[in-house]
Design brief:
Blueprint lengths: L1 H6 L14 H5 L8 H6 L2 H8 L20 H8 L3 H18 L12 H36 L2 E6 L2 E6 L8 E4 L8 E13 L1 H4 L5 E2 L10 E2 L4 E13 L5 H7 L2 E3 L4 H38 L8 H19 L3 H19 L2 E3 L2 H7 L4 E4 L11 E7 L1 E3 L2 H7 L2 H13 L4 E4 L5 E4 L2 H11 L5 H7 L1 E6 L7 E9 L2 E9 H6 L1 E5 L5 E3 L2 H16 L2 E12 L15 E10 L6 H10 L3 E5 L4 H11 L7 E4 H4 L4 H7 L3 E5 L3 H13 L4 E5 L5 H6 L2 E5 L5 H6 L2 E3 L4 H42 L8 H19 L23 H29 L9 H22 L17 H20 L11 H12 L1 H10 L17 E3 L19 H11 L30 E4 L2 E3 L23 E2 L9 E3 L5
Parallel strand pairs: 10-22, 10-25, 18-21, 22-24, 23-24, 25-26, 26-27
Antiparallel strand pairs: 1-2, 1-3, 3-7, 4-5, 4-6, 4-7, 8-32, 9-27, 11-12, 11-21, 13-14, 15-16, 16-17, 17-20, 18-19, 20-21, 28-30, 29-30, 31-32
Helix pairs in contact: 5-7, 6-7, 6-11, 7-12, 7-28, 10-11, 10-12, 10-27, 11-27, 11-28, 12-27, 12-28, 13-27, 15-16, 15-17, 19-21, 27-28, 27-29, 28-30, 28-31, 29-30, 29-33, 30-31, 30-32, 30-33
EC number: 7.2.2.10
Family: Belongs to the cation transport ATPase (P-type) (TC 3.A.3) family.
Subcellular location: Membrane; Vacuole membrane
Length: about 1050
């Protein structure tokens, strides 16, 4: 799949049309890099000319396409099944022996049985393969949607968003913090860009990007990540010709089963062994019995014996075919494919199959606030700039022009957002929702943000990060002075100021009394659930002697004011939170907002309940293990939290046996998303790193979509249980009847090979199609989640399986030995053996059809017909099975070993089969207790606590030091896993270091608090090794790369 996706974005044929060939362009980023080559061709301008592009205009808009697979490969794979091959060989032998007069009583028709078996095998293979092909097509479509993403580029001089599959050599791409490069490229312009290229170079130090003449690295390598800064690059290689593409093409792809598929695979193997044992035992009994009876009766062993023994072998092989539950993996695949497509339509893009199953077992959800619980439609509604204002439009008309100019320049230049055409085709601001709200606020003053950006020359840029919670920019105001603009968390920006602008537009000293007014304003805004943004500025002479490149000049600023941005709560969130709580799932809000804002929003959406706790991140990370475990059950809101606080929360919850789902949208949320059992990233506001690290993408950034994911996760699990309950019943009954009937019938089973193959088709493909496509109901949220270690087959399922098997065996054995006597009461002719076996077969099929209806419900539910009209696939399968059964029995003749039945016999068969319905109801009414759901704790903890030592008192090892928010944030910038020099667990990167697949040897623990460290042990979704170094353990050569995140696994090629 990855290879096909890469091949779909090949380089154009450039040898004849362009100045540079593929090899020359590849030399830019090959290790070691070759920046001197860039200078030889005339720098980036020479490169652009040679590629018929422009550093300012980019390329014109054009698009490529992809291709799909064929069904032929799937059919050939299905025919490789060893049991089917044996059956085909036996059928061919039966045809030959049946057509030769020497070995057949009736050569004219003796071949029909063998041909019928071959036709049945072909039908089974074609139906199964077609079904599998459709499932793969669904996965393929989702893979393309998952791998695809929109990136910012310049085409025809305009900023636009294009698919990564449409990126071409010569394109000008816009980079921002958190982006993962989809192509190789060369630096055009930018500010403070640093990239993590440890996956390629092995060096953990971030690489600063810029012009080669200024001593910076101008080459960008596909697969590397932008740690900070923004700028433009020109693409030099894409797809299989890019550095990352070449690596991916050298890897081979193999499939990897989900946990549920692995469980069912083991179950299927055990059932298959049971069928194989029954078949071997049957042959060991009936073949000697055949020859003994011949000897006892004095009958000679004729040339016909070969054909009869062949039929016995065919019967035994057919028992294996029926016993082996190929439908189990098929049902899982079908349920997952169907569920994933439905989830996609409900704004959940599933990236990892296992997450579908895991969400059904989720016990806690740690949710972001912005965009998930709120609408992410930010609007400035109030503020304090010189004076408090409520009407933004009126305020804009009264603010002095000189102050308005400072305000608007700061808003325009200190922002990465821009105006363009959105994915919905509307002209609007694109970028951070907070920055879009600020730019819209600036519009009220008649400001043109593009004019300000053209007029002001950026000298230095200090990007926003979750650790700093602010961003700044230094611009050249005129020939003699610089102006520094700052914006960010209001309390932090206010703390950096010693002056402010009053209502007359005059700069005044920021006295404690005035600062108290601003502090109270910030608290009032936060109490109203508003996000507060502070703004400040300061002028510096050009010859002031400060080193602006080293650090931002953030002291003694002039406070412009604070604005309150409203982000309305999503109307569906309160109901969704109530649904989660009813389903036994604890919802926690983890946000970077101050605790007052967080409390109000949590109360409004129902997360913060009576007795619930709110805590700030700096205090949380300094708790001891005992204190943290004591407060976690009641902790509902974590405010002013950093990404490492979220990691610590997730790790500790998992250590306590919780199944944790986490939402995240920022680059630094990547480790927490990877650490969680299920990570949800934001499809609208999420960075590429967050999306790459997640299991599910919320396409609408909506918390209610998480509830739908939980619903579908539980529904998929239930669908598998329903199918399992049905198929095991059929297995037990079919094998038992065929086994006992063959022994008592002189080696000939009452159910022939063709009949059993039809039954196999009913219980495998058709039943999987019917039961795996059951739509979810809200009742699924009225029960607690299933435990991670819950058994596949519950006690109530065993009760139904065994109860139905007993009923069916009693009915079928009565028909086997006394069926002719009973049915002669309904007809006026004598019933022969073939006719009796037809009645037996027909009754057997209708017993399965009515039991299939029974299997729609689990546990003690009474009505199996509830909601049946909501599943048209089930009804179509049911009706189609009845129609085919009528044709099979009535017109099959010798090919199917059946005789036509009269209407009385059909009615009797249907009525007998319908007994399964009241019997099933009676079984479900029998009370049976299930074992309590246990939350098993992992054998090794992921959040490790080492009590810090107080140096002033060597005997004290457990004293807690509560740090301030500012101090804590400063420390976290060094500890962040995305900028730590020692960390190599950056999501979706190739190489970087060798990681043992065992838990004993993991990456260096990541500090996340005072005494706390995260060690990834029990939830390694991906294990990363260096793809460019020799690898001596081929059995564990599991590799991951940045593209194709839905790909199950990648393996290094053999070193031989």
């Amino acid at each position: 799949m990855v290879a096909q996706q890469l091949e779909s974005i090949q380089l154009d044929s450039i040898e004849d049309e362009f100045k540079f060939d593929i090899q020359t362009l590849g030399q830019f980023v090959d290790v070691p890099k070759n920046p001197a080559l860039l200078e030889e061709i005339g720098g980036v301008q020479g490169l652009a000319a040679g590629l018929k592009s422009s550093t300012t205009q980019g390329l014109p808009n054009e698009y490529n396409s992809t291709e799909a697979n064929r069904i032929r490969i799937i059919i050939l794979d299905a025919l490789k099944d060893h049991i089917l091959i044996l059956l085909i060989i036996a059928a061919v032998i039966s045809i030959v022996l049946g057509a030769i007069p020497y070995t057949s009583d009736d050569p004219e028709t003796g071949w029909i049985d063998g041909v019928a078996i071959l036709v049945a095998v072909i039908i089974v293979v074609v139906v199964t393969s077609t079904n599998d092909f459709k499932n793969q097509a669904r996965f393929r479509e989702l893979n393309e949607k998952t791998s695809d993403k929109q990136i910012k580029a310049i085409r025809s001089g305009e900023q636009c968003q294009i698919s990564i599959f449409d990126v071409r050599v010569g394109d000008v791409l816009l980079l921002d913090t958190g982006d993962i490069l989809c192509a190789d490229g060369v630096f055009i312009e930018g500010h403070s860009i640093t990239c993590d290229e440890s996956s390629i170079t092995g060096e953990s130090d971030p690489i600063k990007k810029g012009h080669y003449t200024e001593g910076f690295d101008p080459m960008f390598i596909s697969g590397s990540m932008v740690l900070e800064g923004f700028g433009r690059i020109m693409v030099t290689a894409v797809g299989t010709n890019s550095f990352n593409g070449k690596t991916m093409m050298s890897l081979r792809v193999e499939s990897e089963d989900t946990p549920l598929q692995e469980k069912l695979g083991k179950l299927a193997a055990n059932i298959g062994k049971f069928g194989l044992s029954a078949a071997v035992l049957l042959l060991l009994i009936i073949i000697p019995k055949y020859f003994i009876e011949k000897k006892v009766n004095g009958e000679p062993i004729s040339s016909k014996a070969g054909g009869e023994i062949t039929n016995m072998v065919i019967g035994a092989i057919t028992i294996i075919v029926v016993a082996v539950p190929e439908g189990l993996p098929l049902a899982v695949t079908m349920a997952l494919a169907y569920g994933m497509m439905k989830m996609f339509k409900e704004n959940n893009l599933v990236r990892h199959l296992a997450s579908c199953e895991t969400m059904g077992s989720a016990t806690t959800i740690c949710s972001d606030k912005t965009g998930t619980l709120t609408q992410n439609v930010m609007t400035v509604v109030t503020g304090y700039i010189g004076t408090l204002f409520k009407d933004c439009q009126q305020f804009a008309s009264t603010l002095p022009k000189d102050i308005a100019a400072i305000l608007c320049d700061g808003i325009a230049i200190n922002s990465n957002a821009y105006e363009g055409v959105s994915t919905k085709g509307k002209i609007e601001f694109i970028g951070s929702k907070t920055e879009c709200a600020m730019l819209n606020f600036g519009k009220l003053f008649g400001s043109d943000y593009q004019e300000a950006r053209r007029r002001l020359e950026i000298v230095e840029l200090y990007p926003f990060s979750s650790a700093r919670k602010r961003m700044g920019v230094l611009v050249k105001q005129d020939s003699s002075s610089y102006r520094f603009f700052q914006k960010g968390a209001s309390e932090i920006v206010l703390g950096q100021c010693d002056r402010y602008i009053d209502q007359n537009g005059q700069v005044q000293r920021l006295t404690p009394e005035v600062k108290a007014i601003f502090d109270q304003t910030i608290i009032d805004f936060a109490t109203d659930a508003l996000r507060t943004i502070g703004m400040a500025y300061r002028d510096y002479p050009i010859d002031c002697g400060l080193d602006f490149k080293k650090e931002a000049p953030e002291s003694n600023l002039i406070f412009i004011g604070v604005v309150g941005i409203k982000d309305p709560l999503r109307p569906e969130v309160p109901d969704a939170v109530i649904q989660c709580q009813r389903a036994g799932i604890t919802v926690r809000m983890v946000t970077g907002d101050n605790i007052i804002t967080a409390q109000n929003i949590a109360k409004n959406c129902g997360i913060l309940t009576e007795g619930g706790l709110c805590m700030e991140g700096p205090k949380f990370r300094n708790l001891s293990k005992e204190e943290m475990d004591a407060i976690l059950p009641k902790l509902q809101v974590l405010a002013r939290s950093s990404p490492t606080d979220k990691q610590l929360l997730v790790g500790r919850l998992k250590d306590l046996g919780e199944v944790v789902a986490v939402t995240g949208d920022g680059t630094n949320d990547g480790p927490a998303l990877k650490l969680a059992n299920v990570g949800f990233s934001m499809g609208i506001s999420g960075t590429e790193v967050a999306i790459a690290a997640s299991d599910v993408v919320l396409l609408d950034d909506n918390f209610a979509s998480i509830v739908r994911a939980v619903l579908w996760g539980r529904n998929i699990y239930d669908a598998i249980c329903k199918f399992l309950q049905f198929q095991l019943t059929v297995n037990v009954v079919a094998v038992t009847i065929a086994f006992v009937g063959a022994i008592s019938g002189g080696g000939h089973s009452p159910l022939t090979a063709v009949q059993l193959l039809w039954v196999n088709l009913i219980m495998d493909t058709l039943a999987a199609l019917a039961l795996a496509t059951e739509p979810p109901t809200q009742e699924l949220l009225d029960r607690p989640p299933n435990g991670k270690d819950a058994p596949l087959i519950t006690r109530s399922m065993w009760k139904n399986i065994l109860g139905q098997s007993v009923l069916q065996l009693i009915i079928l054995f009565v028909l086997l030995y006394k069926g002719d006597v009973i049915y002669e009461n309904f007809v006026d002719f004598k019933i022969q053996q073939t006719h009796q076996y037809t009645i037996l077969f027909n009754t057997f099929v209708f017993l399965q059809l009515f039991n299939e209806i029974n299997s729609r419900v689990l546990g003690a539910k009474v009505n199996p017909f509830k909601g049946i009209l909501n599943n048209p696939i089930f009804l179509v399968v049911l009706v189609a099975t009845v129609i085919i059964q009528v044709i099979f029995v009535t017109f099959g003749g010798k090919a199917t070993s059946t005789e036509p039945l009269v209407i009385q016999e059909w009615v009797a068969c249907i009525v007998t089969g319908s007994v399964a319905l009241p019997w099933g109801l009676m079984l479900r009414m029998i009370p049976i207790s299930e074992p309590p759901i246990k939350r098993s704790k992992p054998s090794k903890e992921e959040a490790i606590y080492t009590p810090p030592i107080d140096n002033s008192n060597p005997h004290s090892t457990n004293q807690i030091s509560i740090t301030t928010s500012n101090e804590s944030n400063h420390n976290n910038s060094d500890d962040s896993p995305l900028v730590s020099k020692d960390n190599t667990d950056i999501p979706m990167q190739v190489g970087s270091s060798t990681v043992s697949p065992t838990n004993q040897s993991t990456d260096r623990p990541v500090p996340v608090g005072r005494g706390w460290q995260i060690v990834r042990q029990t939830h390694q979704k991906l294990r990363v090794i260096n793809a460019f170094k020799s690898y001596e353990t081929p059995g564990d050569a599991l590799v991951d790369v940045v593209r194709g995140p839905t790909r199950p696994s990648l393996y290094l090629p053999s070193s031989n």
